[in-house]
């Protein structure tokens, strides 16, 4: 996961990796998002929080191109990608994980990561088997080490625990030198130990890789983010540092039931 020079320069200059200007999304008469203005700097770690139905996953779908916005503009590292299909955004370094695991259960852990790396490489249509010195295979092995899955590299994905499958999803998102990642509830269903492992993995990501994380577990979200954006009824409700959000009376009243231990 070598750091791309251009991304590193953008991170140092304080440029924005992600800019949303007046983004909205309607499904018929239903307004899922309205007037979203959001800027995330290159290399920044941002959490997006809110109750169910606040519009968080719809926001991700608009950013990735799964459901393009019905209004507004989305820029990725300064480029207008509002009408780009999802694969064009992937080619530019945008990655995403999903709430539901999307893995090849019958293949090994290493093969899953290898295919992800191959899929975003120029050699993705080659039918040649990887050799002993295959660069893509070495990249897959390095990624598995980064997410602490070395010991299960040859196991079938279907045999992994739920927590290990979530770690594997992070590995897939790291394929092909990503510039920015969207994590959709990576801690869902994890045990306390697995959540601690997840926090360690997210904190160990290279500094130049920024991300936005949607997460219901506030202990996880506040520990892995530098800034927090709160959403409510399809709009941005409040922004601040983790400490500011955790101590905000309105946030506690709406989202935490009056307190957070």
TrEMBL record:
Keywords of the record: ATP-binding, Nucleotide-binding, Transport
GO molecular function, one term: L-valine transmembrane transporter activity
Record keyword Metal-binding present: no
Pfam families, sorted: ABC_tran, BCA_ABC_TP_C
GO CC annotation, single: plasma membrane
PROSITE patterns in alphabetical order: ABC_TRANSPORTER_2
Residues covered by the ABC transporter domain: 18-258
CDD domains: ABC_Mj1267_LivG_branched (cd03219)
GO biological process entries: D-alanine transmembrane transport; L-alanine transport; L-isoleucine import across plasma membrane; L-valine import across plasma membrane
PANTHER family registered for this protein in UniProt: AMINO ACID ABC TRANSPORTER ATP-BINDING PROTEIN (PTHR45772:SF7), CONSERVED COMPONENT OF ABC TRANSPORTER FOR NATURAL AMINO ACIDS-RELATED (PTHR45772)
Identification of the protein by name: ABC transporter ATP-binding protein
